[in-house]
């Protein structure tokens, strides 16, 4: 027990003695891993965004000229009750006229006595995203309905987005792996450097009869402390990054990055793991 | 206690110790003399298994160099007190902490460490300097700290490599008397020294080592 | 001369002796500064993009119903010859009908005998971007022209983009500064650590009569070597980042990041400067 | 050459050297004796301006402690050869490189460095070990390397702090003769030692230092 407390104290004191090196380690780990953290956050957000955009295309249903707005509403409700349909928005003749005004700078009633634009509606499919093959039957079913003149949907675009998303995922995985590998080398080198600067201590401890384990533990304690501090620092920096990125995004889009605790917990675990592995490896090398 | 059987440890191209055979019993006082570079330090390193013989074997306190493993070397060293020729003190720890190190290694409780270390520092006249760092000591004081660290754990063997090289005659004699007192309590003492004048009239067992060849000597 | 060669050699040898620490320094500098490099690249590209989009809005000119396409073409040519006007695209009645078809899913000729949509044209202003106040007179001049029924342009949007761009610039500047500051601390600490591990050398050199300058030079040489290596590494990493980002962007937009040598040169200079400053500071601290 | 005028350098709470007044001429051989912790090393540190006196002044080879600047301390040390009690060798450089260090510092050409260093190593019997690192040497050999580094630059003063502490009597005597030869060529030598037996019969000027008080002694 006394030995255990002594070893904990040793780890802590040796950190404190080597303030400069400790600070440097923590800063290095914190900064580099905050990039990983931010990357992971961005990826998880991006994946969400991509998934949304996958399901964000609309199927446009145009009704025949003589369909009234209320009839159209009824048909749309019918469509909405169908399997796999998430939501629908009705565009009345009046709304179509407003779109016309915006697009062509003319009031359609100034040009004609009657509004020739058809009533239409926009349909969105279920949240999780469907394969192109799964969309066909839905479209067929709507086309078969009464008073529906025409159904248009971006079949080609959907197939494209699918393949884009696969490509995107592998690119993101590649970048993350590269950064993580770079970080691993960095973290383990930093810790090795710290330990290397105390090879006198290791030699003398061994001379006075310390077991390998006794020599190792303070370094591992130190590795854990550095790792946790580095992890916390990188979380803080990631948080700052996200805030900055959000206030930046706000200028262009209503879309905001969402803070994901799982990413942070994973981050700290990864840092701690690397620190411990780094310490162990370094100690092992210097003990022989 | 200690038994060398045709033990040889040589460096590439250099002598070291060759073909040494002798044994040392509990409570013996051995004085190792010989010119510079003869192999005195190497001989002592073989006893605390810092140098494992390339030929022959060394047996110390029940551990044999033939089959000793890393973990057991640590256990052996806990029984052996060593005064290093170059002191081997930790630069960034006080005298007290340096002397306490071997006690922490064996897991002694805080209070026991304190009373033990204070006792040894007092006996060696270092109490006043107990908070100094090694570089805040004179050469002789550092040497005495190294001795304090060696004897604080009540070892069964004390290996003292040139323990009086930085001490004046009076202080050297005091250290000698201290080592003799330790020996009388049953501990074996092996001391390597150049200071032949200091030891020549004393009743020790002498080993002379020249170019790695160890032989008994009348002193 | 012998002394100079000796000092250069010393710097190089001490690097080689402390392989681990050297490698660690270079890796740290390389990785962290590659982020700065990528950030700087992205910013310079973003600024270009923003500038383009600032001038990318169109002024829409609608002609009266009776204007023929050839008359419209003539008027547009007149407008194009005006000061500050960069380009103009004519949208004939026929093209307007096509846009109608795309937007409303109906052929306008199926609905009506005659095409009621007016001829119009889109005008873009000069490349460098104009302040809202400078746009007004151009718009007024076009409105005053014969056969022009109406001119519409996104006055509010322009003002918004202006202010967005200012905001964006300051956010980017803020992020860059934060990263640069973090990097400075990191770099100087890393070099200090390297030097710290050789305080024996410094003490002994001073004991045998080396001047401060003699002690310093090898460390500064070392700092320069580490700095240049770190700079080159970070350039390489930046290049990889840009390539990855581009193959990523390719999936979504034709826009590609452009490699800017000035950024790289600036990057290497900054790294070298920090390394030298870091070495000097560290040596100064340890020399007293 | 060297003049102490009421020079005092004391550590917080410890003695150091107090109120020392004496002077040493070219070509004198001074032997400083005194018990452990008396202040011998501190006295020598004052000469190479590693300890600037808090009171009084020290003048060495034309430099006065009162107004010496960092740059001048370097110039002074180039004229002074020092054998440190703890050797102060660079662990990661060979014997040759350690000895060559002071010559590189003064900007000597490569070939001159080589011939100079080889000459000194030869004279001290270290040629065989010239590629060894310090930890590949025995204690005594390290001490001789430290001496080699002190004399390689033909200093005007040699300060030797316990230069024979790790040497056997024969080697010690050889070193003494070497220092005497250096002295005869006009260099002042100040040697701090505990080995009173070694020096007592020799024709040196003795200083005795006890608890920081320096006084001339008949030996
Ligand atoms: N690690 C090493 N590598 C090569 N040679 C070594 C090494 N350690 C010691 N030696 C050589 O082995 C010989 C014996 O060294 P050792 O240290 O045992 O001598 P010693 O009797 O203790 O001498 P001293 O009285 O000077 O301390 C010396 O010649 C030394 O140079
Ligand atoms: N940096 C320091 N801080 C505090 N006290 C110190 C410092 N350096 C030396 N002392 C003390 O000053 C006194 C004189 O030390 P010094 O090294 O001059 O003794 P010395 O005569 O060389 O002894 P030795 O023969 O043991 O080498 C000693 O008591 C020592 O503890
Ligand atoms: Mg020895
Ligand atoms: Mg001394």
Task: Give a description of the structure.
The complex is a heterotetramer, with two copies of chain A (288 residues) and two copies of chain B (219 residues). In chain A, strands 2-3-1-4 form a four-stranded antiparallel β-sheet. Chain A contains ten helices and four strands, in the order ααβαβααβαβαααα. By secondary structure, chain A is of the alpha+beta class. Chain A has two domains: 180 residues, no CATH class; 96 residues, 2-Layer Sandwich (Alpha-Beta Plaits), CATH 3.30.70. The mean pLDDT of chain A is 75. By secondary structure, chain B is of the alpha/beta class. Chain B contains seven helices and ten strands. In chain B, strand 4 and strand 5 form a beta hairpin. In chain B, helix 3 crosses helix 4 and helix 3 runs parallel beside helix 5. Chains in contact: A-B, A-C, B-D, C-D. Chains A and C meet through helix 2, helix 4, helix 7 and helix 9 of A and helix 2, helix 4, helix 7 and helix 9 of C. Bound molecules: adenosine-5'-triphosphate (ATP) (2 copies) and magnesium ion (2 copies). One adenosine-5'-triphosphate (ATP) sits at the interface of chains D and B.
Total E-strand runs of chain B: 10
Structural class of chain A: alpha+beta
Main interface by residue count: A-C, 52 and 51 residues
The ordered H/E elements of chain B are EEEHEEHEHHHEHEHEE
Structural class of chain B comes to: alpha/beta
Question: Beta fraction of the residues of chain A?
Answer: 5-15%
Q: In terms of quaternary structure, what is this?
A: heterotetramer
**In order across it, which strands form the biggest sheet of chain A?**
2-3-1-4
Unreliable spans of chain B: none
The bound ligands are: adenosine-5'-triphosphate, magnesium ion
The succession of helices and strands of chain A, N to C, reads HHEHEHHEHEHHHH
Assign a percent range to the helix content of chain B. 25-40%
Return the domain count of chain A: 2
Report the major sheet of chain A. 4 strands, antiparallel
Number of helices of chain A: 10
Taking pLDDT < 50 over at least 5 consecutive residues as the criterion, the unreliable ranges of chain A are none
Helix content of chain A: over 70%
Largest sheet of chain B: 6 strands, mixed
Provide the residue-averaged pLDDT of chain A. Answer: 75
